[in-house]
Amino acid sequence: MRNIAVIAALLIGLSAAVAADEFEEKALRIIELDNTTQPSIDMMDEMIRSLQPMMINQMYQDFTDQGKAVKRETVVKLVNEWRELVIVEFSEKMTPLLVKEYRKHFSVEEMDQMIQIMETPAYQTFSSRTPEIMKSAGDAGERLGQELGQKIMLDLLEKYPDLR
């Protein structure tokens, strides 16, 4: 009787491990088909690049305030190397993070259905164009936000003549 319980426990554990591997395999296929990670990596890199000049200036100022004889070029190299390492590590950790999130929300059967849809030519066209669409829409949204922000502030300043 005890041997049967041990064998049953081993089989249950083994089938759970196989199911976990099956799920991860399907999640990785979805990530590949959906081109999920690269746009996120590109967005992170772009965000860091936009902050780099401010980071360099602030770090250079902080080092000189501390009395350190540092060259600006050294701070530029430091920040560039930091950005590269952050992007590499972000890239490596993004896929396991997505697999974990998919595991929370989808069954293996649902993953199979999504893969069937995602392997179609129409979906592949959609997926390949999505990063460009999101970039363009993001740029347009940023411009719209700036325009609205400026317009609304000018309108509000009309209410407060002492601030003009």
Automatic annotation (TrEMBL):
Keyword Signal: yes
Signal peptide extent: 1-19
Protein name as catalogued: DUF2059 domain-containing protein
UniProt KW keywords: Signal
Domain DUF2059: 92-150
Pfam entry (one): DUF2059
